[in-house]
Amino acid sequence: QGGHFSWDKYLKETGASAAPAHCFRQGATPPVNEFKAGMKLEAQDPRNTTSTCIATVVGLTGSRLRLRLDGSDNKNDFWRLVDSSEIQPIGNCEKNTGMLQPPLGFRLNASSWPMFLLKTLNGAEMAPARIFHKQEPPVPEQNSFQVGMKLEAVDRKNPHFICPATVGALRGVEVLVTFDGWRGAFDYYCRYDSRDIFPVGWCSLTGDNLQPPGTKAVLPKTLGCLSDGSEGTAMPGQLPGQRGRKPGCRKAKLTGPWGQKGAGVG
Ligand code: MLY
């Protein structure tokens, strides 16, 4: 899998540059993932971040874990980096005088939580403390992203996907993540120190499957649709407001050497 997407070729094709590693809150090398499917740990409930719940590792992808909260359904899985501070070994919550909570949408009566907790932990394989990472990477001092820089980013609507992306805009400490070859429905703003964005080459280091770009052409505003790179001045016979856009160019499909396997064009 992985299609045949090559950042090397793609960066040359697009004339773009990769956001430098120091822009990101990620380790110089991806954190080692020693977790195994079935292991249990403590995790913040993503839908109710003040509660700490029991989660089971239901899958592994690169440096990330696919987690499911015990007592929840299988429709609310979430992904966390192994060095996330939102996951802890079992026992951590109580050690800090907290109480383990049922997940939002606990499928049983709330009164059965204590018994459920007892049973879910009984005989469970608990992820050993030594495979957790001591801390998250340091926060870079400032937002040093620039518009146009390329990166790899989690598609938050389909968080199992990591995809090629471009910085579309900057807004203080925030970065607009736009997905290459998709028209904007998946774009989002995040803080520059978000753990959902990675430097170019991250997936190839972790063994994650980087999605190829979509096939929907979105042309840079500054270039319009003109191949000469100008913004387009009126051509003879053209009405005002119809500045040199080649007919049909909006619908242009990108067919690059990077293939299009994986995401599906759904
Ligand atoms: N075909 C699905 C998945 C789209 C994924 C887009 N990402 C990779 C930016 C859909 O259209 O929802």
Helix content: under 10%
Q: Describe the global form.
A: elongated
H and E order: HEEEEEHHEEEEEH
Please compute the radius of gyration using only Cα atoms: 22 Å
Give the CA-CA distance, first to last residue.
Answer: 18 Å
What is the oligomeric state here? single chain
Uncertain stretches: 224-253, 259-266
Main sheet strand line-up: 4-3-2-1-5
SS content category? mainly beta
What count of helical segments does DSSP give?
4
Ligand catalogue: N-dimethyl-lysine
Average pLDDT across residues?
A: 87
Number of strands: 10
Strand content: 15-25%
Main β sheet profile: 5 strands, antiparallel
Entry keywords:
266 residues, mainly beta, five-stranded antiparallel beta sheet, 4 helices, binds N-dimethyl-lysine
Quick structural overview:
This protein has 266 residues and is mostly beta strands.
Q: If you had to describe this structure to a student in words, what would you say it looks like?
A:
- 10% of the residues lie in helices and 22% in strands.
- The chain contains four helices and ten strands.
- The strands form two sheets. It has a five-stranded antiparallel beta sheet with strand order 4-3-2-1-5, with no helix packed on it. Strands 9-8-7-6-10 form a five-stranded antiparallel beta sheet, with no helix packed on it.
- A hairpin with an 8-residue loop joins strand 8 and strand 9.
- It is elongated, with a radius of gyration of 22 Å.
- The chain starts with 6 loop residues before the first helix and ends in a 60-residue tail after the last helix.
- Residues 155, 158, 161, 163, 179, 182, 186, 211, 263-264, 266 line the site of N-dimethyl-lysine.
